[in-house]
């Protein structure tokens, strides 16, 4: 049996479990960005394919791998995989559902706190010898605690739920919007209340995005979405950069419509210095906290993810159905 990995060879080796099954599987690795022909030459005969969450797996590649039985995302996202082409051939596509929920929730709360406490400007001020001036300014203008905010969770999946659990410790009032309302027992356990999209945007001091990229959600944070938000609110995105119209978010930050944004992900990746949100003028930098899409890449996440991947490979090798199938098979 052979596993073809499209991604980082060091990571693939580091997190590969050591057991009787994994020792039976030959693993070949192509770095992200390899051409289709390079991929096929290395592992065109593989039964299994593991892809970095942002590495494309095109329909043509799928159709040219005759032995392929399973395509697995290394992460939660799978929008870069041609799921329809895999379904046509009866090939399972799976993701690592839920493995990064706690880690990404931590990143979301980190970005909320970073904005409310203005860590970017504060760090710079201390380094430049302006510590006391900034402290006095904060006492006059006021520093808002996260527990005093009403937070809106847009999408109550695994990460949205994990974020709600963390926010409960701060004493936040939490609304959530989702197409499918959770059971009352789930709402009670999480301490959340369902709201329509319009109500959530209008009432919340912080709006945190936790939805996948779909035809419906791509670019959803546009002029209309931002105009519907409470003036002076904060936007948090630890999901995907494709959810946002970057120019619209830039304008909202420059105008002050948004008090700030905490973004773990921009589009496209790799992010370049001329990205509309990475190139704000200096006097606006305090309104934006960026992190390099690291919310879900903890040691714990990768350990859980690769364990899940290899367990699914073992299931398919035995003729069983894998878990977390995302392409309708």
Q: Report the helical percentage.
A: 25-40%
The end-to-end distance, rounded to whole angstroms, is 22 Å
> Structural class, please?
alpha/beta
Oligomeric state of the chains present here:
single chain
Number of strands: 12
- The average pLDDT value, as a whole number, equals 96
SSE series: EHEHEHEHEHHHEHEHEHEHEHEEH
Gyration radius, in Å:
22 Å
Portion of residues in beta strands equals 15-25%
Instruction: Please give the largest β-sheet.
Output: 7 strands, parallel
Shape: elongated
Number of helices: 13
Q: Please state how the strands of the largest beta sheet are arranged side by side.
A: 8-7-6-9-10-11-12
Poorly predicted tracts of residues: none
Can you give a write-up of this model?
The protein is α/β, with parallel strands linked by helices and 329 residues long. The chain is 37% helix and 16% strand. The protein has 13 helices and twelve strands. The strands form two sheets. A seven-stranded parallel sheet has the order 8-7-6-9-10-11-12, sandwiched between helices. Helix 5 crosses helix 8 (158-170). The chain is elongated and about 65 Å long.
List keywords for this structure.
329 residues, five-stranded parallel beta sheet, single chain, alpha/beta, elongated
Short characterization:
The chain contains 13 helices and 12 strands.
Compile the SSE list and pairings:
Layout: E1 2-6, H1 9-14, E2 26-30, H2 36-43, E3 48-51, H3 59-63, E4 70-73, H4 83-88, E5 92-94, H5 101-116, H6 119-127, H7 131-141, E6 150-154, H8 158-170, E7 173-177, H9 184-190, E8 192-194, H10 197-203, E9 206-209, H11 223-228, E10 233-237, H12 246-255, E11 258-263, E12 288-290, H13 299-317
Parallel strand pairs: 1-2, 1-3, 3-4, 4-5, 6-7, 6-9, 7-8, 9-10, 10-11, 11-12
Helix pairs in contact: 5-8
């Amino acid at each position: 049996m052979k596993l073809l990995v499209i991604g980082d060879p060091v990571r693939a080796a580091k997190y590969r479990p050591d057991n009787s099954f994994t020792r039976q599987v030959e693993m070949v690795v192509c770095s992200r960005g390899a051409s289709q022909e390079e991929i096929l030459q290395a592992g065109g005969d593989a039964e299994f394919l593991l892809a970095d969450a942002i590495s494309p797996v095109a329909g043509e590649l799928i159709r040219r791998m005759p032995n392929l039985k399973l395509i697995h995302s290394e992460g939660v996202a799978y929008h870069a995989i041609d799921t329809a082409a895999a379904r046509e051939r009866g090939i399972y596509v799976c993701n690592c559902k839920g493995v990064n929920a706690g880690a990404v929730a931590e990143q979301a709360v980190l970005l909320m706190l970073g904005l409310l406490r203005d860590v970017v400007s504060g760090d710079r001020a201390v380094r430049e010898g302006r510590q006391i001036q900034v402290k006095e300014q904060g006492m006059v203008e006021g520093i808002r605690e996260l527990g005093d905010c009403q937070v809106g969770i847009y999408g109550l999946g695994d990460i949205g739920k994990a974020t709600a659990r963390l926010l409960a410790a701060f004493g936040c009032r939490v609304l959530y919007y989702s197409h499918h309302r959770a059971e009352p027992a789930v709402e009670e356990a999480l301490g959340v209340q369902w709201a329509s999209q319009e109500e959530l945007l209008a009432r919340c001091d912080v709006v945190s995005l936790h939805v996948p990229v779909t035809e419906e959600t791509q670019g959803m944070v546009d002029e209309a979405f931002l105009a519907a938000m409470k003036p002076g609110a904060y936007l948090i995105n630890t999901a995907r950069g494709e959810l946002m119209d970057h120019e619209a978010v830039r304008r909202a930050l420059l105008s002050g419509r948004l008090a700030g944004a905490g973004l773990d992900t921009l589009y496209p990746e790799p992010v370049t210095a001329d990205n509309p949100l990475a190139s704000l003028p200096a006097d606006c930098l305090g309104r934006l906290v960026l992190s390099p899409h690291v919310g879900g890449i903890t040691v714990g996440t990768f350990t859980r993810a690769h364990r899940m991947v290899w367990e699914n490979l073992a299931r398919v090798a035995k003729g069983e159905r894998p878990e977390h199938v995302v392409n309708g098979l």
